[in-house]
Amino acid sequence: MNDPHFIVTIDVEADNVWEDQSNLSLLNLSRLSAFQELCNEYSIIPTYLLSYETLAESTFVSFIKKNIKQGKAEIGIHPHVWTIPPFDNPDQQIDYKHLGHYQSMLPENLLQEKLENIHNRFSDVLGVVPKIHRAGRWGLCTRTVSWLETMQYQVDSSVVPLKSYPDSSFTSSSHPDFYHAPRSPYRLSRDHILKPGGLDLVEFPTTCLNSFNNSGLIKLTDRLGSSLHLDVLKKILIKTNMYPLELRPFPGYVHGTLPHIMQMGLKQKLPVLNLMFHSSELLEGASPYSSTAAQADRIWKHIQESFEFIHSRNILTTGILGALAGLKEADYFASS
After folding, report:
1. pLDDT value for 335
2. Residues 184 and 270 sit within 8 Å (Cβ to Cβ)
3. Entry pTM
4. Which of 2, 11, 45, 325 is least surrounded by CB atoms within 10 angstroms?
5. CATH number for position 96
6. Rounded to an integer, what distance in angstroms lies between the CA atom of residue 133 and that of residue 182?
């Protein structure tokens, strides 16, 4: 396959969920109309992945419906399990017992009930059956994969190669660990989320790249940095393009970082470049990444810079389902 696809996947969720997961304010959704206008300018079809709480915001729902009808966006679900019923207290809108949990930590019956509730709520509110999923907090597990396959979802995008997401709040060992994940799309397996299998459900990893493939060294570097505060090795790896860079508009990235990452992806012949971020990052004060006006402005500039790079290279831009259709048409999965 010679022609890569560029996709943009946005986790649409409440403000500041990293700092206060019981907060359900949705001020950041007001910035998505401006973002959609930017996408329209560059003929980008974004994929919005919606948390349960966003489906109660009528203005946002109208915005989503309009863009779906016009073929300007795609949509899927993004389960934050603590905002999806059932709740211990029906008068509250938060499952405090599972606040901040990865969905991989939930008991089997509760996980299935919450997934079914967001699926049904999505369909009822938007009139569309969801086919795309990204786990909240990246917490994909084989039980979720089995449920997605049963419900005839087509795409998951919960895997971030060369990354791990431990949380010191929990003693559970079920945190997402993607150090050894494939970098290109693959058909999922019921037995192991990181090993290609024979399911119809396809994993679209978010793009995270370095100049070589040594996940063991990356894992060691991360462990040294977190336990001993030794970041010298990490700085060396970053300087030499050996430490992985995520295709995300981090405000700490210097000008040209996202085009640099995408250029690496093109050299490595990735069939898909998957840019991701959270809707809250678009609004000053709604995310730790955009806590100041300068940071929010930098995020917007990174996004536009990535769009300009794609436009200048005439790289095909589609929604995530459009990219899946393109890969299937090219018999990508038959040869992968």
Report:
1. 64
2. yes
3. 0.94
4. 2
5. 3.20.20.370
6. 18
Phi-psi region of 314 (alpha: psi -120 to 50; beta: other; left: phi over 0): left
Question: 102 with 175: CB under 8 angstroms?
Answer: yes
Half-sphere exposure of 176 (CA within 13 A, CB side): 23
Ranges assigned E (strand) in the chain: 5-12, 47-50, 74-77, 132-133, 155-156, 186-187, 202-203, 208-209, 245-246, 272-278, 316-317
220/203 same-domain check: no
If asked whether residues 259 and 156 sit together in one domain, one would say yes
Q: Which amino acid is at 78?
A: H
Nearest to 86 by CA among 61, 105, 112, 104: 112
3-state DSSP percent of the chain in helix, strand and coil, to 5: 45, 10, 45
Q: What is the dihedral of CA 100, 101, 102, 106, to 10 degrees?
A: -150
DSSP 164-218: B---TT---S-S-B-TT--SS-EE--SS-TTS--S-S-EE-PPPEE-SS--HHHH
Q: Please enumerate in sequence order all residues whose Cβ is within 8 A of that of 319, keeping only pairs 6 or more positions apart, or say none.
A: 7, 45, 46, 47, 73, 74
How high is the pLDDT of residue 336? 55
pLDDT along the chain (336 residues), means of 10: 88 92 93 98 98 97 98 98 91 90 94 98 98 97 97 98 86 80 97 96 97 74 61 69 90 96 96 98 97 98 98 96 97 82
Count of all residues that appear for the chain in the document: 336
Same domain? 251 vs 318:
yes
Q: Are residues 198 and 292 in the same domain?
A: yes
246 SS3 class: strand
How many domains are contained in the chain? 2
Contact 158, 208 (CB under 8 A): no
CB atoms within 10 A of CB 222: 18
Residue carrying structure tokens 């996709």: 7
Tally the C-alpha atoms within 13 A of residue 322's C-alpha that lie toward its C-beta.
Answer: 20
Burial of 203 (0-12, 13-18, 19+ CB in 10 A): buried
- Considering only CA atoms, which of 222, 226, 225, 259 is closest in space to residue 244? 222
